[in-house]
Write a structure and sequence with these properties.
The complex is a heterodimer of chains A (230) and B (303).
Chain A lengths: L2 E6 L5 H10 L7 E6 L16 E5 L14 E4 L15 E4 L15 E4 L12 E7 L13 E6 L15 E4 L10 E4 L3 H14 L9 E5 L8 H4 L3
Parallel strand pairs in A: 1-2, 2-3, 3-4, 4-5, 5-6, 6-7, 7-8, 8-9
Antiparallel strand pairs in A: 9-11, 10-11
Chain B lengths: L2 E7 L2 H4 L2 H11 L7 E7 L8 E6 L7 H12 L3 E6 L2 E6 L3 H11 L4 E6 L2 E7 L2 H7 L9 E7 L14 E2 L4 E9 L2 H9 L10 H14 L4 H11 L2 E9 L2 E6 L8 E4 L3 E5 L15 E3 L7 E4 L6
Antiparallel strand pairs in B: 1-8, 1-14, 2-7, 2-8, 3-5, 3-6, 4-5, 9-10, 10-11, 11-12, 12-16, 13-14, 13-15
Classes of the chains: A alpha/beta (230), B alpha+beta (303).
Amino acid sequence: MDRVIPLDLTRLTVRELNHFLHHELPTGDAVRVEILNPNGMHNLAVGLDAPADIDILGHAGYFIAGMNKRANVTVHGNVGWSVAENIMSGTVRVKGCASECAGASGHGGLLVIEEDASSRCGISMKGCDIVVGGSVGHMSAFMAQAGTLVVCGDAGGSLGDSLYEATIYVGGTIHSLGADAQEEPMTASDASRVSDLLTKAGIARDPKSFKRVASKRSLYHWHADAGQEY
Amino acid sequence: MCGIVGFLAKKPELSRLLGEFVVPMLTCMGDRGPDSAGLAVFGEPVGPTLRRFNLYAPERCFDWSAFEQQLATRLGGEIEVSALENHAVLIGSVNPVRFKAWLTETYPALHLLSTGRTIDVYKDEGHPAEIARRYHFAQFNGTHAVGHTRMATESAVSPAHAHPFTAGEDFCLVHNGSLSNPYSVRRKLEKRGICFETDNDTEAACRFLEWRMSEGDALEAAIGKGFDELDGFFTLLMATADKLILVRDPFACKPAVAVETDEYVAISSEYRALAHLPGVKDARIFEPVPEQIYSWTVSSPST
């Protein structure tokens, strides 16, 4: 059985909490940390680099589990802006909804948002995977460079604007595609990629029902003709 | 950065605790706006022939009794002034236009914070927690309130530049964001004889919406025109005698989170300012989407 370490934010400052998670986590045994009374506080469990399980019991604020490496962080509630910003590896799971910029510029690892994510989800992602059980807001995957964004619900306006090499899969409707994003046929390898991520996220959906969105690659080079219009 | 807060009580027992709910919200959002703050509270209306005026005096030792006597002599009628620190509430059967003209001529240093039958407005420089203590915000009661904590980015730090802004009667607005065309909006309104009191961008939004309402639009219709007219970033929280209204611009890069239960509606820039409210953990919590008008009406309207 895991050893559970409770950390209560009515008694600890955020700085003390993060110091403990960075420097005082016991090594060797399987460790689970429960963070109590988050009450919307920001910067909880940021910069982790340990194979620990962290449970945040309640709604949390901005930048939760930012720069996460190796740890598995679960938020039992909603989060504010920029959850798992710059995630490197490990898993960050939000049982509720996430506000703007979820998984922004993430390099690796998996971010799961079980309900909705707001605008700019996966903005500038650089290799992480993001699975959203519900819908995402406008400008999601803006300038996304690598990795996969799976949206089981609907996508807001300007999806994948200025997209590089990240791939987006949408189960519901797409309000509008951004500049240089296009819908492409789903192949068997796409369905298998979606299936794998849905399994990891624990979400049951038919992978073949998703649409694939990727870059047209027409913004990769400067067009002199277009430039001359100005 | 700035912070916004709003609260609407759906039950009378919560109206009596309005200040106790709002002060921790405003204090928490002091992290987003530590230079000045303000609060508008909507309570029991005075009679139809009466008006409430809220005034700010730059000096704490301002002689309000001399002011009251002079006003009674010049404009007549029953007048009652209650003052606290730099602030005073004046209730009387005084014509708002005549009062404003008299005030500008006789006491140009006094700032008229609000006019109406239900609204009181407090705003001042300093940390929101300090301002809440100075003016006893925790003791306030009323059906709804709108507050703001300011981190000035585009105009001076002064009580007049703090939010809420008011225009007309029983209308106020707080703003998180920045407008990029406040001067063009202002020039259009000034041509119609509308006067501005500060160079704050939010005042342009406030006076634009009030102008539309004075032309016959409902606030929701006025906001619809505001989406065409106002350029820039905004989360706007507004209140009238019986409504609390929230909108975000199409880009929605200024935050807002709302909580609704059977007993109240609460709005803030960040969830942590709402975490102390009763039943919030199990309440319906949502992020307002861009360009949608969210409107809540007081169950027994103050008319």
